[in-house]
Each structure stands twice: as structure tokens, then as C-alpha cells.
UniProtKB/TrEMBL annotation, chains A, B:
GO biological-process terms attached to the record: positive regulation of cell population proliferation; positive regulation of macrophage differentiation; positive regulation of monocyte differentiation
Species for this entry: Chelydra serpentina
A single GO molecular function term of this UniProt record: macrophage colony-stimulating factor receptor binding
Highest rank taxon of the organism: Eukaryota
Protein name listed in UniProt: Interleukin 34
Entries under InterPro entries matching the protein: IL-34, IL-34_sf
Any one Gene Ontology cellular component term annotated for this protein: extracellular space
Pfam family, one: IL34
Lineage: Eukaryota, Metazoa, Chordata, Craniata, Vertebrata
Alphabetized PANTHER family for the sequence: INTERLEUKIN-34
Length: 176, 176
């Protein structure tokens, strides 16, 4: 009798995962619409003083090259997405934190933070426990105290440029 | 015959100086209208990242207390005004220089720079050569290379707050 349920439960689980992926893709689409080159230029470059940099952790500068290297080490796609998500959630919160509430980039950055928050929620509901060990190490390094991690001065726009490039790399196939 | 012209020439000169003072006061009024607390707050605080500071020369932080001390040393009012003018012309150019052309404080700062340029022109036409030696020293220090002068990190709004306070101190009597 119990065995009879197995295909049905599997079917429900697959449906659930698919619905989750669709939701994830909708958030990614919203992010893409908010992270166009023009908006990054306006809100993260034109509205900041010339040569203004953010002091971020070394691990928060996540470039396409880092993802390529991790893929070569056979790190799974789910883990890479979680890494990208964790890094950029934190980066955006840091940018938001340096903006006064009446700064013209404040609302834009808050909206991005909310989208990342939604994505994290969605992600953690469905994919937790599927992380590669080396990705966990980086994520833990990020969420733990900053002490001990080397720092880097990076332009806010450069941080969002990295965010977009890696997003396209990780999602363009599964969120066509 | 030449002696007969003297009172007339003196009269013309006095008229000229009065007309110059009126023009100076009109520029001061325009500056006051552009330097209200609300505008300083908006353009120099809300539109900058939190804790953003400008690296200025020690002499560019010209406070009411500095003017009081110079007055106690019998430095004349014309010299004090020229000092205030020189310091703040340079401070505003420095703020303008860190702003991208599409930054929401760019136009505001440019307008202030223009007003200071007009005031300097007006001032130099009528008052040159009447400077106290110690004021000249400070002005020369400002316009010469920065090397050798100690530096200070100051908030842009704090620089304009000093500018306004000293302006009111120096002009409220003669530009009622």
C-alpha cells in the first residue's frame, strides 16, 4: 500500500521543484530588469562621488573567473548559485548601509536587497543541504565576523557589474 | 585747475565703491538664498554616502573662531572677507571636482562656484592691495601647491556650514 504512493510523491516533489524554479526565474527576471547597464551607471556611478570605493571582503569580489574555476573543480550549479546569492545579498546590504534614506540611490538599492531576500528565501526552502563543502567555507567566511579576511576597495558599480555577469552565467540556461 | 577736480574725482570714487558694495551685497544675497540649511542638508549630506569626507588643507577649515581671533589681531574687515572668499572658492571647486556631471548635487555646486567667481571678480576690481600681511600668507598658502600643508578629512556639509556662518558674520552688517 505504502509502495503505491512512491511514484505519486516523487511526482509531487518534482512539481514542487519546478514551481520553485519558476519562482526563482521570475525573481531573476526582476533582477535583470533592475540591473540594466543604464541603471547601474546612474545609481551606482553617477550618484556617487568620483572614485568612491566600498571596503569589502576579498570573498565579496565574485567574478566570472571565480565561477569558471569552481566549475572546473566540479562544484555543482546549485552551490554556485548559493554562493552568488550569499555574496551579493551581503554586498547589496553594504551598499545600502552607506546611503542616507534621502539619497537618490537608496530606493533602488533597497528594492534590489528585497529581491535578493526573496531569492534567498526561495532558495533555502528548496535547496538546503545540497552545498559543496568549499562553497560552504566561503559562505561561512562571509557571514561570520569580517576579522581575518583581507579587504579590498571596490567601486559600487564594479560590484554590481560582477553581480550581473555571474547572474547571466548561472541562470541564462535554466531561466530562458 | 587740477585741484578743482579733486573733490569731483573723490565723489566719483566713492560712488564707484558704493556701487561695488551694492553689487557685492546682491551676490551675497544670492549665496544666502542658495545656502539655506535645507539645501545644504539635501545637496551636501543626503546626496553623499554616509561618513563621506573631503580631504582639505588645514587652512580651508575656516571657522567663526578663526575670524574672531584675526579680528582680535586687528586684521581689517576687507582682508577677512577676502580670506573667506579665497578659502570658500577653493573649497567649492574641490567639492565640484568630486562630483560626476550627472550627480544630483553637481548643478547646485556649479552655481555656487559661479557666484563665488563673480564675487571674487567684483572684489579684486575694487579692493586689491588692501590686504593684511597675515591674510596674504594664508591665501598664498592656499593657492600655492598643497605640499607641506597639513590635511584634514571634513564632511562636505561641515565645509558649507562654516562658509555660511562666517559669511553671516562678515556681511550681515554691511549688507542689511
Amino acid at each position: 500500500m505504502q509502495r503505491g504512493y512512491a511514484p505519486f510523491l516523487y511526482f509531487v516533489a518534482v512539481l514542487g521543484l519546478e514551481a520553485a524554479m519558476q519562482k526563482e526565474c521570475r525573481i531573476i527576471e526582476a533582477l535583470q530588469n533592475k540591473l540594466t547597464y543604464q541603471q547601474r551607471l546612474q545609481y551606482m556611478k553617477h550618484y556617487f562621488p568620483i572614485n568612491y570605493t566600498m571596503n569589502v571582503q576579498f570573498e565579496e569580489v565574485l567574478r566570472v573567473a571565480n565561477i569558471t574555476r569552481l566549475r572546473d573543480q566540479s562544484v555543482g550549479e546549485l552551490s554556485l548559485r548559493y554562493l552568488w546569492l550569499s555574496v551579493n545579498s551581503q554586498v547589496l546590504l553594504k551598499i545600502w548601509a552607506v546611503l542616507p534614506e534621502k539619497h537618490p540611490s537608496w530606493e533602488y538599492t533597497r528594492d534590489l536587497c528585497y529581491l535578493f531576500e526573496q531569492l534567498t528565501e526561495e532558495y533555502e526552502n528548496y535547496n538546503q543541504g545540497n552545498m559543496d563543502a568549499n562553497v560552504w567555507d566561503v559562505v561561512e567566511q562571509l557571514v561570520s565576523s569580517d576579522a581575518g579576511s583581507s579587504r579590498k576597495a571596490v567601486y559600487p558599480k564594479a560590484l554590481l557589474d560582477n553581480c550581473v555577469k555571474v547572474m547571466l552565467m548561472l541562470y541564462s540556461e535554466s531561466c530562458k
